[in-house]
């Protein structure tokens, strides 16, 4: 009193007032207490006990309904209780509340050994709670959980034990691990490639297309860091000439999904690397992306250039070499030409040089052979039109000795012509001296035409490259047998088996070769191999696959099918598929095979087979006339999938039941304490859901609004019932207590994992757009849409219904209130929707 | 039917609790009631802390919550009827030998509190001692 500044008399008067007030309170207290009979006292205690038991039952229901596993640990760290969700994880209690009601639970999990270390550390500290993640063994196998440890305090804040709340993160963890493994495998493959690999969007010519991924080899070869490369475009690395070609490359890539081309890549230090790029278009998360593999072909290019360089030094050639320009005029003849006594090199030129040159210029043949006889000397003339040379280059070789030998052999050759084998005699470089008639006819050449060729020219490129190696083997061993393939004049390939041996005539060495056409043998082997591959694949498929004819008889089946129906092949092949699959005498109802015969397209169905579930797919195989001749029937055992789906469905239903139970228990908790607002929450739930629907929320979000409305006043359990039920106006102190219900509601609900922002909406449902609301005074964009709906529904339902301190005001006044404050207190969109559903759509509280 | 007496209506004897009635009555300038109301309403926190400390020190906390909010409610439960009584009369509610306390609003508040505290397991002596 003195500190408050009262004078002495006023202070004493106030003190006296307080003394008398408390004296009267004490008199009332003692009078009431002393006047109570023993019987009345028992009745009072029983009533209090009933009320307390009811209250506990409500919380027990909530506890057992929580989808979150919760365990209570006593002072000795042993489990003193656990809810249903926790029991399912660790030890199956039979009924919810078993421990609470004092039943014997001999098998109940008694310790949480898997949390021993964390518990020890937590209890040694002072923190009220701690949260961490860790793997935990459960009845269903190892799981991964977020664990929350919280101290359990009694009313006097004395430590009574520990609450363990688990949040199952197993699926998230598995998904993360699977993703990690997948990424690791991808990285291993990507970075271990010997070629430079790039990933980038298709190049459009615009700026901004940069690499999205490059491998280590690319960085190593090009001399850039990975970060540098990720800022570059494919065109930044390319030779300028690529700019001119890239439109054509892009079009080919778009059309063929894959393109192979040669170009030059420029490294960071300016070096130029010839590369062969294999670019493939693929789909990456719905976006087209290009995977480019660049192979260094510097060595291959070098080899090609070496060949060209040798050809450009004709002075060193011991045989006559002549060059002519584009007009057919001789511009060069090497010294060997004169040495050979050819004074007029024009005799080496073919009479139709002009036509051949013109044909070569138009994309025709660029190499010809012919023979010229000069002064009893026979020359084989090899004429070519090189691409970078504006004319023709002619090489002549003296083949007089070869010709003489041919003439000697001609007689013998007639004998050889009668065989079907291909026989030739050639120089060691493959120049033909003799070939039999069979070789000419089977390869499709005329005699002279064939004799102008060399053996490597008659072989497929693969075998042409190996010709020199084969000659070396022949020189070492004297004879050899091998397979090779001729290229016929019409471009077709003839595989042959060759028996070759060396032949020495007049001190010179030749090759005598006898080749036998093995096309049929090769084709048969190829067919056999293909059949074997197909059969292996067919049998390796885990799904049962079989072919049926038009009469639905099984004509072929794989091993998986035999396992699936548990019959030997002898009881499968030739029988109708319904007999094998269903033990039926005719097609089953909704048989996909029957449907396919009509629709001529893939048909599917799922059917039970004993304890298993099978999925059947039937695809037609059409003949050239477009008729279905055979059907491919695939049967997949999807029992595991169906079980998983059922489990998932059951789990979801259970979750929904649990959630509904929790919500219902929460709602009834507050309504039994506050009879005047009984039905208020149901009204808000109904109106909030209708508003959400009107505003175009998804069906799931509408359901979320219904749930939120149903429990939005749960925080009122913290407000004394006397205040909630008090008729007449309440004091500012009491109002402050009422105001706390938003925060209390939030604190209760935040622990429950709703699929909607229920706790946040409940916290904000008394906020207002202009910041005049409570508890936080937030405004506008800080208030979530769900809370904006809830606040309007709350006000309308509250005004339209009877309250302890006033009668109902009616829906019209409620709508007037929200329209008057539209945009200042309430969301304009929500207010418009509310007015619409009442005035235009006749909304009634359900 | 007997009607409740107005506060301050009965004359106070000079014994027991009524001794304080012998204190001088105010003359002249009227008492500043609003100031008293502000003092009581504004001192709730201070009072709450004081009582809570005492309760902890004297071991009352064994039987009840030590949460500050619970004690704040308890203090508010006392200060609100006090201020209400102050509104009704500017004279102390003196005690008379023939008063019927069963019809007295302040005593009725005491009776209600008796029922509540008994239901929570608080004994008569425990209540009076902490009061």
Q: How many β-strand runs of chain B? A: 0
Rough outline of chain B: globular
SS field, number of helical segments of chain A: 32
Q: Provide the CATH topology of the largest domain in chain A.
A: Hypothetical protein af1432
- What is the helix fraction of residues of chain A, given as a range? 40-55%
Helix content percent band of chain B:
40-55%
As a percent range, the share of strand residues of chain B is: under 5%
Distance from N terminus to C terminus of chain B (CA atoms, Å) equals: 33 Å
Side by side, the strands of the main sheet of chain A go 2-1-5-4-3
- How many domains of chain A? The number is 6
Low-confidence stretches of chain B: 1-24
Brief summary of the model shown:
The complex is a heterodimer of chains A (846) and B (131). With 846 residues, chain A is of the alpha+beta class.
Overview of the structural elements:
The complex is a heterodimer of chains A (846) and B (131). In chain A, the strands form 5 sheets. Chain A has a 5-stranded antiparallel beta sheet with strand order 2-1-5-4-3, with helices on both faces. Chain A has a 5-stranded antiparallel beta sheet with strand order 7-6-10-9-8, with helices on both faces. In chain A, 26% of the residues are buried. Chain A has 846 residues and is an alpha+beta fold. Chain A folds into 6 domains: 66-173, PAS domain (Beta-Lactamase, 2-Layer Sandwich), CATH 3.30.450.20; 193-301, PAS domain (Beta-Lactamase, 2-Layer Sandwich); 312-398, Beta-Lactamase; 400-523, 2-Layer Sandwich (Beta-Lactamase); 541-637, Beta-Lactamase; 646-839, Hypothetical protein af1432 (Orthogonal Bundle). In chain A, α24 (680-694) runs antiparallel to α25 (699-710), α24 crosses α32 and α25 (699-710) packs across α29 (758-764). Chain A is built from 32 helices and 25 strands. Chain B is mainly alpha-helical and 131 residues long. Chain B has a domain at 31-90 and 104-130. Chain B contains 5 helices and no strands. Chain B has helices at residues 33-42, 44-57, 68-88, 105-119, 124-130. The model of chain B is unreliable at 1-24 (pLDDT under 50). The chains are: A alpha+beta (846), B mainly alpha (131). At the A-B interface, α1 and α2 of A face α1, α3, α4 and α5 of B.
């Amino acid at each position: 009193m003195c500190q408050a500044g009262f004078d002495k008399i006023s202070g004493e008067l106030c003190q006296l007032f307080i003394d008398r007030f408390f004296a009267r309170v004490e008199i009332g207290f003692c009078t009431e207490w002393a006047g109570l009979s023993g019987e009345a006292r028992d009745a009072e205690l029983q009533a209090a006990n009933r009320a307390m038991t009811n209250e506990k039952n409500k919380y027990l229901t909530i506890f057992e309904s929580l989808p979150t596993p919760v365990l209570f640990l006593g002072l000795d760290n042993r489990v003193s209780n656990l809810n249903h969700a926790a029991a399912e994880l660790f030890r199956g209690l039979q009924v919810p509340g078993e421990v609470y009601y004092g039943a014997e639970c001999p098998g109940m999990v008694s310790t949480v050994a898997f949390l021993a270390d964390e518990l020890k550390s937590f209890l040694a500290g002072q923190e009220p709670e701690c949260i961490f993640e860790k793997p935990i063994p459960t009845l269903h196998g190892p799981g991964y959980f977020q664990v929350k440890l919280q101290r359990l305090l009694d009313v006097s804040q004395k430590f009574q034990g520990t609450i363990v709340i688990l949040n199952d993160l197993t699926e998230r963890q598995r998904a993360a691990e699977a993703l990690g493994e997948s990424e690791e495998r991808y990285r291993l493959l990507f970075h271990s490639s010997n070629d430079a690999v790039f990933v980038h969007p298709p190049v459009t010519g615009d700026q901004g297309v940069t690499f999205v991924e490059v491998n280590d080899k690319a960085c190593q070869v090009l001399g850039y860091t990975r970060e540098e490369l990720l800022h570059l475009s494919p065109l930044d690395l390319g030779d300028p000439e690529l700019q001119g070609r890239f439109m054509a490359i892009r079009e080919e890539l778009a059309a063929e999904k894959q393109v192979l081309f040669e170009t030059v890549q420029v490294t960071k230090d300016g070096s130029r690397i010839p590369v062969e790029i294999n670019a493939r278009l693929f789909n990456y998360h719905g976006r087209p992306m290009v995977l480019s593999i660049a192979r260094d072909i510097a060595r291959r290019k070098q080899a090609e250039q070496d060949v060209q360089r040798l050809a450009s030094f004709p002075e060193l050639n011991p045989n006559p070499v002549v060059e002519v320009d584009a007009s057919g005029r001789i511009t060069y003849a090497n010294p060997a030409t004169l040495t050979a006594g050819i004074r007029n090199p024009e005799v080496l030129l073919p009479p139709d040089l002009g036509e051949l040159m013109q044909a070569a210029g138009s994309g025709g043949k660029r190499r010809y052979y012919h023979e010229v006889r000069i002064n009893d000397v026979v020359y084989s003339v090899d004429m070519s039109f090189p691409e970078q040379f504006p004319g023709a280059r002619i090489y002549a070789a003296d083949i007089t000795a070869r010709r003489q030998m041919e003439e000697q052999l001609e007689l013998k050759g007639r004998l050889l012509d009668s065989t079907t084998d291909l026989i030739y005699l050639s120089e060691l470089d493959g120049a033909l001296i003799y070939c039999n008639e069979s070789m000419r006819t089977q390869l499709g050449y005329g005699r002279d035409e064939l004799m102008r060729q060399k053996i490597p020219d008659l072989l497929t490129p693969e075998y042409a490259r190996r010709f020199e190696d084969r000659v070396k083997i022949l020189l070492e061993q004297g004879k050899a047998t091998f397979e090779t393939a001729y290229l016929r004049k019409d471009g077709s390939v003839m595989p042959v088996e060759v028996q070759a041996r060396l032949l020495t005539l007049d001190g010179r060495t030749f090759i005598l070769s006898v080749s036998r056409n093995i096309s049929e043998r090769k084709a048969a082997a190829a067919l056999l191999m293909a059949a074997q591959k197909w059969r292996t694949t067919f049998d390796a498929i885990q799904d049962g696959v079989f072919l049926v004819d038009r009469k639905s008889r099984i004509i072929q089946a794989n091993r998986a099918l035999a396992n699936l129906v548990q019959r030997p092949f002898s009881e499968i092949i030739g029988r109708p598929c319904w007999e094998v699959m269903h033990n039926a005498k005719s097609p089953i109802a909704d048989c996909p095979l029957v449907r396919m015969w009509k629709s001529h397209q893939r048909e599917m169905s799922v059917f039970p087979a004993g304890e298993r579930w099978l999925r059947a797919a039937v695809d037609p195989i059409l003949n050239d006339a477009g008729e279905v001749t055979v059907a491919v029937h695939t049967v997949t055992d999807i029992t595991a999938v169906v079980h998983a789906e059922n489990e998932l469905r059951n789990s979801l239903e259970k979750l929904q039941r649990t959630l509904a139970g929790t919500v219902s228990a929460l709602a009834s908790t507050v309504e039994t304490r506050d009879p005047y607002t009984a039905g208020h929450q149901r009204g808000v739930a109904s109106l909030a859901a209708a508003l959400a629907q009107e505003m175009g929320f998804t069906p799931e979000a509408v359901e979320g609004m219904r749930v939120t409305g149903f429990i939005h006043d749960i925080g009122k359990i913290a407000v004394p019932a006397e205040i909630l039920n008090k008729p007449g106006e309440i004091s500012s102190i009491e109002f402050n207590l009422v105001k706390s219900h938003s925060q209390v509601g939030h604190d209760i609900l935040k622990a429950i994992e709703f699929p909607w922002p229920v706790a946040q909406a409940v916290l904000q449902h008394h906020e207002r757009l202009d910041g005049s609301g409570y508890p936080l005074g937030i405004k506008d964009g800080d208030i979530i849409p769900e809370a904006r709906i809830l606040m309007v529904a709350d006000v309308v339902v509250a005004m339209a219904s009877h309250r302890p301190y006033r009668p109902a005001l009616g829906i019209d006044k409620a709508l007037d209130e929200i329209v008057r404050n539209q945009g200042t207190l309430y969301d304009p969109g929500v207010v418009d929707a509310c007015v619409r559903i009442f005035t235009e759509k006749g909304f009634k509280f359900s | 039917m007997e009607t409740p007496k107005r506060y301050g209506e009965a004359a106070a004897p000079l014994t027991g609790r009524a001794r304080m009635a012998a204190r001088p009555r105010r003359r002249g300038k009227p008492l500043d009631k609003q100031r008293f109301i502000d003092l009581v309403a504004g001192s709730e926190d201070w009072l709450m802390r004081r009582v809570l400390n005492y309760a902890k020190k004297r071991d009352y906390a064994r039987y009840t919550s030590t949460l500050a909010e619970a004690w704040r409610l308890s203090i508010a439960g006392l200060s609100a009827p006090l201020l209400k009584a102050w509104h009704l009369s500017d004279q102390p509610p003196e005690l008379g030998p023939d008063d019927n306390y069963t019809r007295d609003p302040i005593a009725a508040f005491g009776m209600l509190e008796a029922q509540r505290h008994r239901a929570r397991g608080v004994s008569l002596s425990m209540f009076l001692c902490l009061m």
